[in-house]
Amino acid sequence: MAKQRIAVLGGGMGALSAVFAITDQDGWADRFDITVYQLGWRLGGKAATSRDPRESRVLEHGYHMLFGFYENTFAIMRRCYDELGRDPAKPISKVVALSTDEEARYPGRYAFHRQNTAVLQQQLADGSWHNLVFDFPPNTDLPGDPGKMPTALAYIEMAIELLVRLIGDIALGSRPPAAAPPGWWDRLKSVAPVLVEKLDPMSHDVQGHRAHLELIRNLVRKLAADEQRGVLLRAVAREGLSVLVMLMREYLRVLWALVSRDVATNWDCFKIWTSSDFVCTTIIGMIEDDVVANGIDSIDNLNFHDWLIKHATVPAGTNVTAGSCWMQAAYDSSFAYLNGDSTSPRTPQKPLLGTPCLGAGTALRGAMRLGLAYKGALAWKFQAGCAEALVAPVYQALRRRGVKFKFFSKVERLGVGDAALIDTIQIQQQVNLQNAGAEYEPLIDVKGLPCWPAEPLWDQIDNASAVRDQDLESDWSAWPGVGRATLRRGVDFDHVLLAIPLGALPPICGELIAASPAWKTMIASIPTVRTLAVQLWVNKNLTELGWTGPIAPTGIGVEPIDTWADMTELIDRESWPDATRPKGVSYFCCAMADDPSQPSAPDPGYPATQATLVRDAAIAFLNTQSNQFWPNAHKPDGFDWQVLVAAEGRSGADRLDDQFIHAGIDASERYVLSPAGSARLRLKPGESGFANLTLAGDWTENTINAGCMEATFISGLAASRAIAGYPKEIPGEEDFGPAGPRPPSA
């Protein structure tokens, strides 16, 4: 039987994970011939990383982190690293260590280190700033190990335990306790006589918020324990959840009575209220909307903050919660602002700044998996550039397996034939290679680590002087290429795997959009957003800068630049001389507002205008907000620019020009949003509507349906299943695991 020729369009992790899965079976090469066509000189898509000539600094599109629920991402990467068998004496030779002790013992060996802390910053009405610190307990699992998703009750139990850890040490001072309403215990017995017998004899003596929260905790623990033992009857579970809603609503009423007077200016009151209201109201909404029976996407027709307010016990209190760092973090972490607007004023109908745009189902699923279903650690922090730890190893493994890569291949258009098949693929060849018969070799060595350079390796490019000043990854470049080729079905390919980002698809897929209402609806209904990134190398450590919080990713509570991560460990991966070696490096990122006057491409001068906007935003941010997190780098007139590591002779804000700023304005860089009601409009990888076309990317229907690496990998695996028949099962495609015994967590 003839091999099926697969043309893979795009070299991001959707494409690479799909091809890795297809080629991860014995005998794959007898069935398939695979060629990846990639724009420019590097792979990775939004995960692309480069090294600039100056001290081989790591340059990112933005901040990247893998989370502990990324089962498929870690499973593939662990398999990939094992296959490569990298020299343990060289850096980044393994994916993860078994323990933090092992991480510390071999600091350069592992691609990802555990991160169990996160920080959200909140400003109160009196102008004071506070850190809401989350410490997530580690466990002995590793992401990528076999396992089932938690049940709904297990999620609820973990959420209540998180709440207790977060607020358990807060005392509300001399405020009088709020007594339980008259007849409260009798009302509970009338609703749930079976469960009342299971509660501790003194549990009904509810005097204040602590005892009330403990009653909630005890009820959930008993239900979850019975479920785990397999002895929880369905009728009892329904009854128990009904009582739980009643208990939580009563708890929130009691708590609001205690704190409402001071919630705007007292940090303890604000923290205990917003934490309790966010967790409890989310659980109440899950139960009342019966997301287990109806599916989490059944609530995705509402924006997340609207859904939370819908289930409010105390509407005035939930309006506070919906405008707090809890809600802001959900939107900031997903760049979830329509048209990149994160700054327009709040209104009575909209508790957040900007134009928040995130479906409730997508947000709920992400929050549960992120904060509750993690393995090993909440998050896993890159110990090298994103594409060095993630993309380069997969590329190397696929090259060894026999997959072909054609770099400098810009896909311009897909042609649809009469039989709903992709008939042609038009490609612009951006450059010719010196050796026309060879494959481009894209990687360089930096201190023993395979890395991607910031520009093509010109010694491999024919007539390089003609193209040196062109940005071969930019939509805005006027470079016409050195030729065009039309790939034809039955001659050059049989099947197409389309893994180009959503923002770039309209001009490429015009014929598909015209031929398919489903394509037209998806393209029209799922927006994308620009992003910006700023990387700062500094000559003081965090203590010297005045930061007093933990070293953790931080939502910094202001817009537009709203996310900060210390990445000082990457200095060891860079090539700084001792005399100028920085003491720290920090990454900042956020959504970037669309330009209503954006010209049509090509326009070679346009990117510079947008980079200037990022520079201006960084200057304003550092001048006005640096005292919030780096007080020792703030002077009466603004930021102390001498803190930045810069070339001799640069002064003031000009020292920012020796940092790295990036405006993610190209169509392929735009981040995919998940607005309310959009999940059902996404196309599945294996259901493109065209018989020889499979899809991959975070823009497809992939259960998570949000822009994250695990969504991309799930989509890639589903694409492999559609093409090759495997894997049969993909972890994370289900939201809840089956009830019954489950392995204990350490």
Strand percent estimate: 15-25%
| Rg measurement, Å | 27 Å
* Number of H/I helices: 22
Main β sheet profile: 8 strands, mixed
- The assigned structural class equals alpha+beta
Q: Enter the CATH topology name of one domain.
A: FAD/NAD(P)-binding domain
First-last Cα distance: 51 Å
Count the beta strands. Answer: 25
Mean pLDDT: 93
**CATH level-four homologous superfamily name of one domain:** FAD/NAD(P)-binding domain
| Helix residue percentage | 25-40%
Give an account of the 3D structure:
This protein is of the alpha+beta class. Among the domains are: 4-46 and 385-526 and 683-724, FAD/NAD(P)-binding domain (3-Layer(bba) Sandwich), CATH 3.50.50.60; 150-372, no CATH class. 34% of the residues lie in helices and 16% in strands. It has 22 helices and 25 strands. The strands form 7 sheets. Strands 7, 8, 17, 18, 19, 20, 23 and 24 form an 8-stranded mixed β-sheet that branches. A 5-stranded parallel β-sheet has the order 10-2-1-16-25. Strands 5-9-6 form a 3-stranded antiparallel β-sheet, with no helix packed on it. Strand 13 (444-446) and strand 14 form a beta hairpin. The radius of gyration is 27 Å and the shape is globular. The protein starts with a strand and ends in a 22-residue tail after the last helix. Mean pLDDT is 93; it is low at 201-206 and 741-746.
